[in-house]
Amino acid sequence: MNSVILQIASRIVRTLLIFFALIALLRGHNHPGGGFIGGMLAGLSIAFRGFAYNITAADEMTKFKPHYYVALGLIIVLISVIPSLYLHDYFMQGEWFKISIGEWQLKIGTPLVFDIGVFFVVIGVSVLFLFSLKRQNLWK
After folding, report:
1. What is the DSSP letter of 2?
2. What's the CA gap between 83 and 93, in Å, rounded?
3. Is the pLDDT of residue 138 over 60?
4. Contact predicate 6/88, CB 8 Å
5. Counting beta carbons within 10 angstroms of the beta carbon of residue 92, is it exposed (0 to 12), middle (13 to 18) or buried (19 or more)?
6. 86 Cβ partners below 8 Å, 6+ apart?
7. Domain coordinates of the chain in residue numbers?
8. What is the pLDDT of the chain when averaged over all its residues?
9. Are 31 and 111 in contact, with CB atoms under 8 Å apart?
10. At 109, which helix (H) or strand (E)?
11. Is 139 helix (H, G, I), strand (E, B) or coil?
12. How many CB atoms lie under 10 A from the CB of residue 54?
C-alpha cells in the first residue's frame, strides 16, 4: 500500500504500540496475560509497518530474525524455572528476590521473568506468521 497518510501515521502508532506493549508487560506481571498481550501489541507494531509500507520494510525493521525471538523467549522461560528447582519448591513456583538500591528496594520475581519470555515468544510467532503470509503470496 502506498498511502502517505498511513506511512506518516505509522511512525506515531508504532511508537504508541511499543509503549503500551511495555506497559502491558510490566503491569501485567502481577496479573494474567501481561506477556502475551504485550507481545501481541509489539508484534502488531511490526505488522503495522508492513501494512503502511510493504513486508520487506517490516522485515528490515526487525533487528533479528523471528525465530531468534522465539528461541530467546524460550530460554528466558527456562531461566524463570531455575530458582524454584534450586530452592526445592514446586515446579514453576513464584520466587521473589529483593534488590536494595540505596534506600529503595526492588522486588523482582520469576513471574516477571516468565512474562518477559512469553513476550518474546509471542513477538516471534506473530512475526513468523506475518512473514509466512508473504512467502505464500497471501499478502500483496
Report:
1. -
2. 8
3. no
4. no
5. middle
6. none
7. 4-135
8. 83
9. no
10. strand 104-109
11. coil
12. 16
Please report where in the chains the cell 518474546 appears, as a residue.
Answer: 120
Q: What is the pLDDT of residues 20-62, one digit of tens each?
A: 999 988 887 666 668 899 999 999 888 888 778 877 777 777 7
Question: Strand pairing partners for 106?
Answer: 99
> What DSSP letter does each residue of 14-73 carry, written as one string?
HHHHHHHHHHHHHHGGGSTTHHHHHHHHHHHHHHHHHHHS-HHHHHHH-SS-HHHHHHHH
In terms of C-beta distances under 8 Å and separation of at least 24 residues, what long-range contacts does 17-24 make, across chains too? Answer: 17/41, 17/42, 17/44, 17/45, 17/48, 18/42, 18/45, 21/45, 21/119
3-state SS class at 88: coil
% pLDDT > 90, the chain: 25
Grid cell 528461541 — which residue?
71
Helices (H) and strands (E) counted in the chain, each on its own, are 5, 2
